[in-house]
Automatic annotation (TrEMBL):
Parts forming coiled coils: none
Compartment(s) of residence: Membrane
UniProt similarity note: Belongs to the major facilitator superfamily. Proton-dependent oligopeptide transporter (POT/PTR) (TC 2.A.17) family.
Name the UniProt record assigns to this protein: Uncharacterized protein
Species: Stephania japonica
Entries under InterPro entries matching the protein: MFS_trans_sf, POT_fam
Length: 605
């Protein structure tokens, strides 16, 4: 009897939906909690340090060291960032369907840490992707010879081999970034039990600290790391990234026996394809006389009622001969017959797509903040006092600062006032997205005006000096407006995709949100290529000339401002068309926890 009582007491200390590393129910007193969450967050800090530290200053390296044209350099950066976010989908799919979050983090982290490469003498580099980048910036054979001031012929561009090594290093980093970002925050929330009131409140604090950690990593990257790149050397800065990631991985792996793990539930992407395939197979079928005759096997408490939109998908729920398995189980073949609830889940995802499409252009304008805006800064006076010069890449500190200031003002000022006036907790998710789109449009207009002034001065001084007598702080309005726009649109998008997606597709909806970032960078690359080709034809210097002092970057900014305004109008039409899903109040409360700071229990990045 005492042994049985002891056993029953131990069962009370287990977490119902989590297991330990051996697959047994997780012991609440020995697994999870703040320490384990902190071990996971260390990975995110180092990932953000590496990615942002590379991205914000990469364009200056490509132009100044690799001697690439301005437009080509911008596209290399945006393609790198776009691929990083796009690969989050791969990481999320693997985590949901096969590997689980822990294994996904471990594998993709090890992709970046497997090889220990000696660079020079005592210099060691421990992260595969960043190590190759450190080597490519260190070894003279991996970049073209420097230009001389008296040189009359054009500078020699990097050859195919040199660019190949650079691309290999960048996309190894992108692969690791995508895999890590897909699971880090989700695995962090797995360390807390939502059914326990104490741990549930701790989880809310986890979201606050998660955002703080991300911001800390970004600020460190755009200040300290960028300064080291410019003042000491890029290979040293990238070596620091490598060493920090290596240490973070060791700390993460040391918690293996103390983490809590959730079992894989299958990928919602497969469920969506099952509905599409089943509907396509039955495209010629007639609808039954009543929707009640459509197939439904979901428990009553979890059912989603039939809606009248997208009737073509309803054909996936029409019962036909041969839809059920022949093994005697009585279960339907999911590729031939789907329940009404499963069909309605797909409908909910389809309804998100118009809003999803109209938020991509924001991230196209965002891309200019780490490409052309940084290149603008390299030509301007960045000195503070007599002995300190702000690194061009560190100008993005105003961008990050705008995000933090905007979130603080919204949380502490706007939300309380709005609650007193309207009785609601701040703006709706679609309203926040709209505000973000407006701010980015104004930001691009401000960037165009600033560039007009800079170009006018460049023509006056001609080639007398490489640094124009105009303060770099003139760029602050464009950084601030787009940064404030991100504060609203990021939280609005995340709120929208989390709360308006099916309960079983939260992970996928977060991945859908991340694809807007990815596609925004790719659209930027496409737009830059088209503008460069169209305006630079017939031996004329285009808007995006190799030397931005010879181009008309202001025209490109005006183009983005016009496109952003048109996109905003289209977004308003989509927002008016969209009808919010009716969500159970208790479920919505759980979904909304942590969203004030841009995160959710189901967030994947």
């Amino acid at each position: 009897m005492p042994m049985q009582a002891q056993h029953e007491g131990k069962i009370g200390w287990t977490v119902a939906d989590a297991v330990d590393y051996k697959g047994f129910p997780a012991d609440r007193s020995k697994t999870g909690g703040w320490i384990r969450a902190a071990q996971i967050l260390g990975i995110e800090v180092c990932e953000r340090l590496s990615t942002m530290g590379i991205a914000v200053n990469l364009v200056t390296y490509l132009v100044g060291t690799m001697h690439l044209p301005s437009a080509t350099s911008a596209n290399v950066v945006t393609d790198f960032m776009g691929t990083s976010f796009l690969l989050c989908l791969l990481g999320g799919f693997l985590a949901d369907a096969f590997l689980g979050r822990y294994m996904t983090i471990a594998i993709f982290a090890l992709v970046q840490t497997l090889m220990k490469i000696l660079t020079e003498r005592t210099d060691t580099v421990d992260e595969q992707g960043t190590a190759l980048l450190a080597i490519s910036t260190k070894l003279p054979q991996l970049h073209p010879p420097p230009c001389k001031e008296s040189q009359t012929v054009p500078c020699k561009q990097a050859n195919g081999f040199q660019m190949g090594i650079l691309y290999l290093s960048l996309y190894l980093i992108a692969l690791g970034t995508g895999g890590l970002k897909s699971s880090v925050s989700g695995f962090g929330t797995d360390q807390f039990d939502e059914k326990d009131e104490k741990e549930k409140s701790q989880m809310a604090y986890f979201f606050n600290r998660f955002v703080f950690i991300i911001s800390t990593g970004t600020l460190t990257a755009v200040t300290v790391l960028v300064y080291i790149q410019d003042a000491v050397g890029r290979s040293t800065a990238y070596g620091i990234c490598s060493a920090s990631m290596f240490i973070a991985v060791l700390i993460f792996l040391s918690g293996t026996k103390r983490f809590r793990y959730k079992k894989c539930q299958g990928s919602p992407v497969v469920h969506i394809f099952q509905v599409l395939v089943a509907a396509a197979r039955k495209r010629n079928f007639q609808f039954p006389s009543s929707v009640n005759l459509l197939y439904e096997n979901t428990p009553e408490a979890s059912r989603i009622h039939h809606t009248d939109q997208f009737h073509v998908l309803d054909k996936a729920a029409i019962v036909a001969e041969g839809d059920f398995e022949e093994n005697g189980s009585g279960a339907p073949n999911p590729w031939k017959l789907c329940s009404v609830t499963r069909v309605e889940e797909v409908k909910m995802v389809v309804k998100l797509l118009p809003v999803w499409a109209t938020t991509i252009i924001f991230w196209t304008t965002y891309a200019q903040m780490i490409t052309f805006s940084v290149e603008q800064a390299t030509t301007m006076d960045r000195s503070i006092g007599r002995h300190f010069e702000i690194p061009a890449g560190s100008l993005t500190v105003f961008f990050v600062g705008a995000i933090l200031i905007s979130l603080a003002i919204y949380d502490r000022v706007i939300m309380p006032l709005w609650k007193k006036w309207k009785g609601t907790r701040g703006f709706t998710n679609l309203q926040r997205i709209a505000i973000g789109l407006v701010l980015s449009t104004i930001g691009m207009a401000a960037a165009a005006v600033c560039e007009m002034k800079r170009l006018a001065l460049a023509k006056e001084v001609a080639t007398k000096t490489s640094t124009l007598p105009i303060s770099v702080f003139l760029l602050i309005p464009q950084f601030f407006m787009v940064g404030a726009g991100e504060a609203f649109i990021y939280t609005g998008q995340l709120d929208f995709f989390i709360t308006q997606s099916p309960k079983g597709m939260k992970t996928m909806s977060t991945g859908l949100f991340l694809t807007t970032l990815s596609l925004g960078f790719f659209v930027s690359s496409f737009l830059v290529s088209v503008v460069d080709k169209v305006t630079g034809s017939n031996d004329k210097l285009g808007w995006l000339a190799d030397n931005i002092n010879d181009g008309r970057l202001d025209y490109f900014y005006w183009l983005l401002a016009v496109l952003s305004f048109i996109n905003f109008v289209v977004f308003l039409l989509c927002a008016l068309w969209y009808k919010p899903n009716k969500t159970d109040n208790n479920q919505k409360v759980l979904q909304m926890e942590g969203l004030n700071n841009g995160c959710s229990a189901e967030e994947k990045c």
